[in-house]
Design a protein that fits this description.
The complex is a heterodimer of chains A (602) and B (151).
Chain A (H helix, E strand, L loop, with lengths): L2 E5 L2 H6 L1 H14 L5 E5 L11 E4 L5 E4 L4 H13 L14 H4 L17 H6 L4 H9 L2 H11 L11 H10 L6 E6 L8 H8 L1 H15 L3 E6 L4 H16 L15 E6 L9 H8 L23 E5 H13 L1 H5 L9 E8 L5 E6 L4 H8 L9 E6 L5 E4 L9 H6 L8 E6 L4 H15 L5 H18 L6 H15 L4 H5 L2 H9 L1 H9 L12 E5 L9 H5 L5 E2 L7 E2 L9 H5 L5 E5 L3 H5 L7 E2 L1
Parallel strand pairs in A: 1-2, 5-6, 5-8, 6-7, 9-13
Antiparallel strand pairs in A: 1-3, 3-4, 9-10, 11-12, 11-13, 14-17, 15-16, 17-18
Helix pairs in contact in A: 2-3, 6-10, 6-13, 7-8, 7-10, 9-10, 9-11, 10-13, 17-18, 17-21, 18-19, 19-21
Chain B lengths: L2 H10 L6 H12 L4 H11 L3 H10 L11 E6 L2 H5 L2 H12 L12 E6 L11 E3 L2 E3 L4 H11 L3
Parallel strand pairs in B: 1-2
Antiparallel strand pairs in B: 1-3, 3-4
């Protein structure tokens, strides 16, 4: 029977996939066609959402993108009934976005129905757990993970096998195995997609880990902002319990493991292990001093092991394919693949999984298709608020833990945000610091106060009030915040500032000395004006202007009153004749007087 | 004390790590957290009201005032930021007259800043109640607001 799968991840839903789904259901039942419609997770090419995949009886697959109700009806008519695929809507198999990827963790996402345990079982699901419990000792499981060279995908890259062996070595009748799904980095959605697209894979990894360290109880700590992921996890847990793949005496063995889903309540710092445990216990999510490490004294005082979602997603595939096959992928010190959320000013954004060792240039230009509107690349931001901005000159850097760290950024959990010439790097530093500053739990003085002072300096610079001495002060404060903070939040918070100072110092200097924002972004340093020659007097700018700053008679050139303009950009967006110009650096009257010529125009 | 809330308290009473789920379920029930409810939670969990209030104020999820009939969550994730999320705040300010964290006087709209909605490929995005609107401009957002609002 022909089957149709609709990508119903959060991105797809936001783009209108539910409408496509219901159109399919209604139309197929109206026509009484023997075709099944199922939901699947994120197919990955988020820039082509909503997507559906048609799978025919003879095993052919057709992936359609950017559908709406009307196009869906056409696909039903011409392809499902008429038997002729509509080339125009198809995403070709050699689409570079898909062709360059290597899917291990995301192998099932967008392929199986995440709400069906039978789909997961049909894809060799829970075989790795069975193999571990029945054929391997816990030490053998740990040995296999070590041999595979798996490192933590949450950001820091700590070897997973070593982490497990530390938790195993601690005696204690009660141990906990925890999955960290508190994906807080703004600009990252890998964990969400995996939980939505293949929840059983994470459960299986967690259960194998529990067997390895000797835990009988587990928690998955998920952000409350991910309601669909929570729903699918809870469903998957109950399905696995029914089949005796979780719960007591799993598969008839002596191993029992019970999993609880814990909803986070919105605190970025809870991504840190000790803070996460405090939050599960019902306290304020504040980090505590290590040692004792969670492996010694963790949740409710018991030895605890915490792994990130994507790390756990690698576990079952490693046991299935064998450590040596897995370790053959990647570089010497970074094995396997990494999932990235590719976003920002990129043509083809979405969820991607690439082998370690691929270069940033390949990711951005070959998979991502280059920069939106063919603008000029400026930087790529890796690792979110804990990471840094990597410039064009370093685009040939390999994607692996050590090479990325050497640039001053970090691999991070997988947010990869591309920035172009219209992105102001001082503003980016200010943006990340305002995030970490507001998310600082307040425990360590330098993180609480130091980030605040740094933010004030950055705000001053973006407003044209900066001093050259600010740059040294930023560097000095950055060092102190890094050195005197207890947890990763404070230790890495200065990274966006340090990397932009290192690679884009001239932009800071322009803001300070010339009161110019070269990217034409910082509101206090830009002005909007009408190019009277290009203006046709269509009155659109005057209509959208919320403050009556843009005025003029029909068919006559309009004007913008700078005193009234709040720089909301609505006129710039609205103008169809590119007659609204953004300028920076010098006052327009000075240009008119011929005293300045160094004006930059948008 | 009403029945629904009392059932909630009894259900979670003796479970470990019950403070945050209790606060979450209470907010689900009421729309926000009131002092009396937090005091009742303190009593069943054996903590002081100050501890409960301390936990509630630590996490961004909890509100202490009712929110508007419609909630606009403006995403300020990195991708949305570089694609103009600030302009969306400004558009809402000129349309509704309120800043993030505020509710309109008629109780119709609340505006919130959120760190990331995870729909980065559709940036910039705004979540209006349960629906995500992507690839917005200030003007498009105003139209979205006007469509649901009674103003």
């Amino acid at each position: 029977m022909t089957e149709v799968f609709v990508g119903l991840g959060s991105c797809g839903i936001a783009a209108g996939a539910r409408e496509v789904y219901s159109t399919l259901q209604q139309e197929l039942s109206r026509r009484k066609l023997p075709i099944s419609v199922s939901a699947t997770g994120c197919i990955g090419a988020c820039h082509r959402e909503p997507q559906i995949e048609v799978r025919t009886e003879d095993g052919l697959r057709f992936l359609y993108g950017e559908l709406d109700s009307e196009k869906t009806l056409k696909v039903i008519e011409e392809h499902l009934v008429g038997g002729k695929p509509i080339e125009e809507y198809l995403i070709p198999e050699d689409y570079p976005y898909l062709a360059k990827q290597k899917k291990i963790v995301l192998a099932n996402s967008g392929v199986i129905n995440p709400e069906s345990i039978d789909d997961y079982l049909a894809a060799d699901g829970y075989k790795a757990l069975g193999k571990a419990i029945k054929q391997m000792s816990p030490d053998e499981v740990i040995g296999e993970i070590k041999a595979a060279g798996l490192r933590g995908r949450g950001g820091a890259g700590f070897p997973t096998g070593l982490k497990w062996s530390l938790a195993r070595a601690n005696a204690g009748a009660k141990k906990y195995m925890v999955c960290n799904a508190d994906e807080g980095d703004p600009g990252a959605f890998m964990d969400r997609s995996l939980l939505e697209g293949d929840p059983h894979a994470v459960l299986e990894g967690l259960a194998i880990g529990a067997y390895a360290i000797g835990a009988d109880e587990g928690y998955i700590y998920v952000r409350a902002e991910y309601p669909l992921a929570i729903k699918r996890l809870e469903l998957a847990i109950s399905q696995a319990q029914e089949r005796n793949l979780l719960g007591s005496h799993i598969m008839g063995s002596g191993f029992s493991f019970e999993i609880h889903v814990k909803e986070g309540a919105g605190a970025f710092v809870c991504g840190e292990e000790t803070a996460l445990m405090a939050s599960i216990e019902g306290k304020r999510g504040m980090p505590s001093i290590r040692p004792p490490f969670p492996a010694e004294r963790g949740l409710w005082g018991a030895p605890t092991n915490i792994n990130n979602v994507e790390t756990l997603g690698n576990v079952a595939p490693i046991l299935r394919m064998g450590a040596s096959a897995y370790a053959a992928i990647g570089t010497e010190k970074s094995k396997g693949t990494k999932v990235f959320a590719l976003a920002g000013k990129i043509k083809h954004g979405g969820m991607i999984e690439v082998p370690m060792g691929i270069t940033l240039r390949e990711v951005i230009y070959e998979i991502g298709g280059g920069i939106q509107d063919d603008k000029k690349f400026k930087a790529v931001q890796l690792g979110g608020p804990s990471g840094g901005c990597i410039p064009e000159s370093l685009l040939d850097v390999q994607v692996d833990y050590d090479s990325v760290t050497a640039t001053g950024a970090i691999m991070g959990s997988g947010g990869m945000v591309v920035m172009d010439e219209t992105t102001c790097m001082v503003d980016v530093a200010r943006y990340f610091l305002s995030f970490t500053q507001s998310e600082s739990c307040g425990k360590c003085t330098f993180c609480r106060m130091g980030t605040k002072r740094m933010l004030e300096i950055l705000e001053r610079i973006t407003q044209g009030q900066g001093r050259m001495s600010d740059l040294e002060e930023l560097e000095e404060l950055a060092l102190k915040v890094k050195q005197s903070s207890l947890c990763g939040l404070g230790q890495t918070a200065p990274n966006p500032v340090l990397t932009t100072l290192k690679y884009f110092r001239q932009e800071y200097v322009e803001h300070i000395q010339n009161k110019r924002c070269p990217a034409l972004h910082c509101r206090e340093l830009i002005r909007f004006r009408v190019n009277e020659e290009a203006c046709t007097g269509c009155t659109l700018c005057a209509k959208v202007c919320p403050t009556q700053a843009a005025t003029g008679q029909r068919k006559e050139a309009h004007r913008i009153d700078e005193a009234l303009c709040i720089k909301c950009g609505l006129c710039f967006e609205a103008c169809r004749f590119n007659a609204i110009e953004i300028t920076t650096g010098v006052v327009a009257s000075e240009v008119a007087a011929g005293t300045e010529t160094a004006e930059v125009e948008a | 004390m009403d029945k629904g809330f009392n059932e909630l308290l009894q259900h979670w009473k003796n479970q470990k790590g019950n403070v945050i789920p209790l606060l979450q379920k209470t907010q689900e029930l009421r729309g926000f957290l009131e002092r009396e409810d937090m005091e009742a939670i303190a009593e069943v969990t054996g903590k002081s009201p100050a501890e409960i209030y301390g936990v509630a104020t630590f996490y961004a999820q909890f509100r202490f005032q009712p929110s508007g009939k419609h909630t606009l969550k403006v995403c300020h994730g990195t991708a949305c930021h570089v694609n103009g999320a600030d302009q969306l705040d400004l558009a809402l300010k000129t349309e509704l007259g309120i800043d993030p964290g505020q509710t309109t006087e008629d109780g119709e709209f609340s505006v919130e800043r959120v760190a990331c909605l995870g729909c980065c490929s559709l940036a910039p995005v705004v979540m209006l109640d349960q629906e995500v609107h992507g690839r917005l401009t200030g003007d498009k957002l105003k139209k979205v607001v006007r469509k649901v609002g009674t103003r």
